[in-house]
Amino acid sequence: MSTPTIPDPGQLIISVLSSQWDAFWPDLLHELEEAYGPADTVTELFAFDQTAYYDAELGTPITRRLVGFTGLRPLDELADIKQFTNSLEVRQSAEGNRLFNLDPGFITLQSLVLATGKNFSHRIYLKAGIWADLTLIWQKKQWVDFPWTFPDYAGEEMKSRLTKLRQSYRNKLSKPQT
Mind listing the pLDDT tens digit for each residue in 45-98? Predict the structure, then answer.
């Protein structure tokens, strides 16, 4: 018999995609910090050009930044976090088009799991229409992707940023939480 144990909390990250940063940034960062505490990582903008999936809605050129938060959070909050980020997207949309796309997820020592509202064969249902997507795993000191990993997350540019966030997370785990 397995004995259930509560896992370590995770490093919440939120990927932000947009082509219209001046319309909402840094106000969006402040809203996210009100909800999840101070950000300790806000990456510089970098290109999102691996797919044209969001071009019609978000405009072009789309760029991305990652936001990581100081405090660690229980992993079972992921669905609630996705519902909140969805509400931010809707609240700041115009004529059915979003200004930005928000993708929250958790980094742990073992993996990166993103939240999504879309089901697929490899996704696990959480609650309230939200699934967990096992996007990357950490193995042999590097991120390993899967056949279903989004191309932007499979690239080295993203993986190098995620490695820095994972190291920050690892450092936080070794310090007592206050």
Answer: 999 999 999 999 999 999 999 999 999 999 999 999 999 999 999 999 988 899
Measured on CA atoms in the order 3, 176, 134, 31, is the torsion positive or negative?
positive
Query: DSSP readout, 104-169?
Result: EEEE-SSEEEEEES---TT-EEEETTEEEEEEEEEETTEEEE-TTS-HHHHSHHHHHHHHHHHHHH
Q: What is the pTM of this model?
A: 0.95
Residue carrying structure tokens 């992921």: 78
The 10 Å Cβ neighbour count of residue 100 is: 23
Which residue in 163, 139, 140, 159 sits closest to 149, CA to CA? Answer: 159
Question: What's the rounded Cα separation, in Å, for the pair 120 and 97?
Answer: 24
- The domain spans of the chain are 11-169
What does DSSP assign to residue 57?
Answer: H
Q: Report d(CA 92, CA 169) in Å as an integer.
A: 30
DSSP H or E run through 103? strand 101-107
Closest alpha carbon to 40 in 16, 14, 71, 74: 71
